[in-house]
Amino acid sequence: MHPKDLVTQTFRQRFGKDPAYLALAPGRVNILGEHVDYNDGFVMPAAIDRATYIAFSPLDDNSERSTLVAANFAEEVSFTPQGIPTKTAADGSPLPEWACYPAGVAWALTEAGHPAPALNAAFASGVPRGSGLSSSASVEMAFAIAWQTLSDWELPPMQRALLGQKAENQYVGVNCGIMDQFASACGVADKFLLLDCRSLEWQTLPVPEDVAIVIADTSVRRKLTDGTYNQRRQACEDALKILSVHLPGIKALRDVSLDDFNQFSDQLPGLVEKRARHVVEEIERSRRAIPLLEQGNIRAFGQIMNECHASLRDLYEVSIPELNTMVEIAQSLPGCFGARLTGAGFGGCTVNLVEKTAAQAFAADLARQYEAKTGLKPEIYICRASDGARLVQDKS
Ligand code: GLA
Question: Is the pLDDT of residue 270 over 70?
Answer without folding.
Answer: yes
